[in-house]
Here is the input.
Amino acid sequence: MNKSFKKLSTPYIVWLYLLAILPIGVMIILSFIQSEGLSFDEAKVSMNAFELLFDSTTLVAIRNSFLYAGIATLISLVLGYFVAYQLFKSKFKNKLLILTIFILPMWSNLLLRTESLGNLMEHNNMVTDLLSRININIGIGIKGTPLAVIIGLVFTYLPFVILPVYTALEKIDYSLEEASLDLGLTESKTFFKVVFPLSLKGVITGAILVFLPALSGFAVPEILGKGNVLFIGNLIEQAFKNMNYGFGSLLSVVIIFMILIALFVVNKVDKEGEMLL
Here is the structure.
């Protein structure tokens, strides 16, 4: 029986090697090669891509990626934990429906959501047009600024915090809270000494699920930042557009390496994958 099940997994293993392992191997090789596009007639081994890693533009992109992804992660953790905790404490009978409402925007295309959000950040948009009809003139006009990028990242990835944190809260034994209150602790001290420590698995998982895509993405900073805020993802896009496959591949490998480290951390924190269910 076990052997027959192993045979069923063969197509998936082949698929994994063809679409994951092989491309990563190709990118690692391209990182050490300097060529004209994908023409390898005059290709030669070069460390030029590694030298570009320390270029001022690259360093700015890396700094922006880590800085804004970190800020967006912190904001998402605060807002996400608050929402998840309030939902956990609420008396709603169908909490799954509320969770579905939170993740509903994720079912739509990311580019459409980002473009819609960007429209609201323009001076002239649908909302300001409607308000102007009743003599209320309000214009935000933050598109193209770091603030717009941070708002976009939080808006996009906030559900990735709410879900694992809520799952972690649901798994806490309520009797522990009751025992803490019976022993004389206030509700706030019970939260910080009992509830929050027991929900740290969800917090760590949520932080990683927000930080990584925020760090490596390019759509949000490209659309909401209007090219003024450079991320690592934007550099990768530009490198491949300019047929600098060595540099683009190297940056991609760096991102993949960070993702593997994050997966290792998640595996150590949440070995059974409970926080993702």
User: Anything to note?
Assistant: The chain is about 70% helix and 5% strand. The beta strands are 33-36, 39-45. The mean pLDDT is 83. The two ends are 28 Å apart (CA to CA).
